[in-house]
Amino acid sequence: MASTTILHLTKQTASLDTLRNLAVPKENGYDPEFLDLCNIRHNIFDELCKQSSNEPQFSFQNICDAIQQLHSGKATDELGLAAEHFKNSPTTVTHFLTNCFNNIFNNHHIPDIFKSGIVTHVLKKGKNPMLMDTYRGIAVTPVISKLFECTILPRLTVNFNQSSLQFGFTKGLSMLMASLIITEARAEVKLVTMEPLFLITVDSQKVFDVVDYIILLDALYDHTQNHPLWSIV
Fold first, then answer.
1. What is the helix, strand, coil percentage profile of the chain, to 5?
2. Helix, strand or coil for residue 119?
3. I want to staple 150 with a disulfide (CB 3.0 to 4.6 A). Which of 53, 69, 137, 222 is the partner?
4. 82's torsion region: left (phi>0), alpha (psi -120 to 50) or beta?
5. How far is CA 152 from the centre of its chain?
6. Residues 91, 94, 99: CA angle, nearest 5 degrees
7. Tens of pLDDT along 144-182?
């Protein structure tokens, strides 16, 4: 019993340390002058967004559309709420949420409850249960914060020149389509050209630990058309 308790506390402490360090790059190869420039631009953009008009950004219909995008049948959050609570009472909650989300936009402040969640540690298949890195954290975030994201995303139009060969995190595409291209290329080499085929795969681990969010936000500002929402992001 004591060893189980110690393991639980150690896992919890490790998770907290991981969360605290998530946005802090450990080793970066960025040009320091470029990073300084991004920080300067970030401060300027932030001030411009705060000085913009405080007209409501979200309408009653925006909230209704966002509620329909929530996935049913999911676990309840730390407030005991699920998507079904919002879907079954739209007339009761929509007016309140409209005012709430517009206040968040106008005050440029995200409530702390939006940033919390319940984390469950799940052991990766076939891994050593005594090692901290062998656990995957599954987080249940507040339904209202998911709803807020669903409300923002349609209005945050982003125009990136994305490669046609990028399949991950792309709507309408999946990694199965990428594997199909590899399979077809292998078949063509084997049956037609009879030449060697060299395939290189790269598994980038913990990529978010080494990405500076200031640089990401700088790129987002240049590629979005709705700048007032940029400061909310």
1. 55, 5, 40
2. strand
3. 69
4. beta
5. 13
6. 140
7. 999 999 998 887 766 667 777 777 777 788 888 888 888
Q: Report the candidate in 137, 141, 138 with the shortest Cα–Cα distance to residue 116.
A: 141
**The two structure tokens encoding residue 178:** 């990428």
pTM: 0.69
Instruction: Write 46-50 long-range contacts (CB < 8 A, 24+).
Output: 46/231, 48/227, 49/108, 49/227, 49/228, 49/230, 49/231, 50/108, 50/231
Dig out the tokens for 43 from the structure. 């401060």
CB hemisphere CA count around 127 (13 angstroms):
12
Burial 79-103 (b: 16+ CB within 10 A, else e): eeebbebbeeeeeebbeebbebbbe
Q: Would you call 143 exposed, middle or buried from its count of C-beta atoms within 10 A (0-12, 13-18, 19+)?
A: buried
